[in-house]
Write a structure and sequence with these properties.
three-stranded mixed sheet, 5 helices, 45% helix
C-alpha cells in the first residue's frame, strides 16, 4: 500500500511532466516533412540533431555537427538579424527549401572552402532565393559561380 503523501507527490510530478509536454512548439506543416537526408521525420528531433524551418515552412532535421560549418552559421546569423531570437517558436531560416537542399548538399559533400565562401558571399546579396542558383536539372558548383 502506498502512503497518501507519496501518492500525492507522485501525482503532482506526473502533472508537471504532462504540462511540460503540452508546451511543445509546433509550426503548421506543409504536405511534406523531410530531414536533411530527405527522410520523413517524427515531431521531435533525434538525439544529436536540431530542427529548422525554411521560409516556405519546410522542416529540416540537421545534425549538430553541421553547426561547425560556415554556411549554416551564416544562415543562423541571418535568421537572428531578420527574425530576432525567439524563446517561443521554431528557428526559421530566411531562405527557401530549394536553397536549403543546395546548402545541405554542399555541407554533406564537404566542398572546397573557396566554394563555401562563394556561397556565403552570395547569401547576403540574393536573400537565399533558389532562382539565383537553380535551373531545372542543373545543380552543380559551376552554376553557383555563374550566379555572380
Amino acid at each position: 500500500m502506498i502512503n497518501p503523501k507519496k501518492l500525492i507527490k507522485m501525482a503532482r510530478k506526473w502533472q508537471k511532466i504532462a504540462a511540460m509536454k503540452r508546451k511543445r512548439i509546433t509550426l503548421p506543416r506543409t504536405d511534406e516533412v523531410l530531414d536533411a537526408d530527405g527522410c520523413s521525420t517524427s515531431a521531435v528531433a533525434d538525439k544529436g540533431h536540431f530542427v529548422v524551418y525554411s521560409s516556405d515552412k519546410r522542416r529540416f532535421v540537421i545534425p549538430l555537427v553541421y553547426l561547425n560549418n560556415e554556411i549554416l552559421r551564416e544562415l543562423l546569423q541571418m535568421s537572428e538579424e531578420e527574425f530576432g531570437i525567439q524563446s517561443e517558436g521554431p528557428i526559421i531560416l530566411p531562405c527557401d527549401s530549394v536553397f536549403m537542399d543546395y546548402a545541405i548538399s554542399f555541407i554533406q559533400r564537404g566542398v572546397a572552402k573557396d566554394l563555401e565562401r562563394a556561397l556565403i558571399m552570395s547569401i547576403g546579396s540574393s536573400n537565399c532565393s533558389s532562382s539565383a542558383y537553380f535551373h531545372q536539372g542543373q545543380s552543380n558548383e559551376q552554376l553557383l559561380l555563374c550566379a555572380f
